[in-house]
Amino acid sequence: MDLRAEMQIDTLIRAMEHVILPAIDPADAAAQEQGALVLATLRLIADRLPMTYRYDRDELARYVTLAAALLEALDVEDAARRALAVAHAEGADTLARAGAEPAELLERSRVLRAHVGDLAERVAGAGAECDTLRRLIFTAAREQTIRERKWLEPTGFDAAAADLPSLEAQLPAPHNNRTTPGGRP
Amino acid sequence: MIRYAARWLRDHRPVPDRISMIHGDYRGGNFLFDPETDRITGLLDWELAHLGDRHEELALISLATLGHYAEDGHTYLVGGMLPEVEFFTAYERASGLPINRAVFDYYRIFNAYRVAVNLIASAFRVASAGKTHQDVLLGWIMGLGYAVLADLQQLLEET
Q1: Cα separation, B111 vs B64, whole angstroms
Q2: pLDDT (tens digit, 9 = 90+) per residue, A15-30?
Q3: Cα separation, A164 vs A146, whole angstroms
Q4: Which label site among A3, B3, B13, B140 has the fewest CB atoms less than 10 Å from its CB?
Q5: Which residues of B14-35 are buried (b: 16+ CB within 10 A; e: fewer)?
Q6: In chain A, what are the domain boundaries?
Q7: 10 Å Cβ neighbour count for B138?
């Protein structure tokens, strides 16, 4: 799915810069100010969005580190310390599972997509001996397209997307990944 | 699915029965129409014009995404104009040329492939590279691409 927020925000910035802001009445101070603020906000989002996940991980790491130091320094075993110890253990566990950068996820998908694409081309040129491979590829492609259509439903181009399963149902939690194309998450 | 379709299209391309001028984007919105005389008075947007098989044009306008249902809610109108049988009958009568259903079906897949690539890949590249004053529009219409991709897969599964 290529219609990503980063690309869309860039198109919004260019539309604001080149089309919308020049058309705002120079005598309308409020509109001028708000137009400039919209542009500045979009630039801020564009700049910071790619680092959001890293920021969230850093925030958690800082609290895990601080909690560990506090637990070490606390000399009383009361309810507050026990609660902090549980929260620290859970936070450390989550942090350990949050190692990959978003860009790494995208790159791994890109590489896998390229190899699957090579195989799909071969299957398209093959006969019935590849029916199992064909079924797997078609099932996975169908599921992907259903997800993309639901993701893009707000654009209003695809009326039938309203009848597709919700994104909450289609995007499995990390501990509940699919094991087979067509399998339930 | 795109790469599967590309290979399938290469392997199954038909030989045209004649070489025709193809507009390439012939649909409602790309012609001028005089309601008083029931005549088309002009064709617009020729940047995709090329020489090819006449079935390509017929199949393009038959894409589900370029038509809609009549006010009765169940009669599908090709290109938003005529029910399918009437549309094809009118074409054969006006042109004197029969429609080869197998070739037409090939070009339905070809056009779904082409439109999906235009929307998902070409629009993305143009908008990402900041190549036009309409980047925000191109980024938005990519939303149609995956509905066309679903059509493409369905057509391939029906072959």
Answers
A1: 11
A2: 999 999 999 999 999 9
A3: 7
A4: B13
A5: eeeeeebebbbbbbeebeeeee
A6: 5-51, 57-96, 102-176
A7: 20
Specify whether the CB–CB gap between A85 and A93 falls below 8 A: no
- The maximal CA–CA distance of chain B, rounded, in angstroms, is 47
Picking from B8, B117, B135 by the largest number of A CB atoms within 10 A of its own CB, the best residue to mutate is B135
- Nearest 5°: the CA angle B113, B115, B121 is 90
Q: All domains of chain B, ordered by start, with CATH? A: 2-158 (3.90.1200.10)
| A33 φ, ψ (degrees, to nearest 5) | -65, -45
| DSSP secondary structure code for residue B62 in this structure | T
Contact list in B for residue A10 (CB cut-off 8 A) is 127-128, 130, 135
Are β-strands B82-83 and B50-52 bridged in parallel, bridged antiparallel, or unpaired? unpaired
**Tally of CA atoms within 13 A in the half-sphere of B147 that contains its CB:** 21
pLDDT at B118: 92
Element (H, E) at A185: none
The residues, any chain, with a CB within 8 Å of residue A28's CB and separated by 6 or more, are: none
* Per-residue pLDDT tens over the stretch A91-104: 999 999 998 888 89
- For residue A87, give how far its alpha carbon lies from the nearest alpha carbon of chain B (Å): 42
Q: How many CB atoms lie within 10 A of CB A103?
A: 11
Q: What is the pTM of this model?
A: 0.82
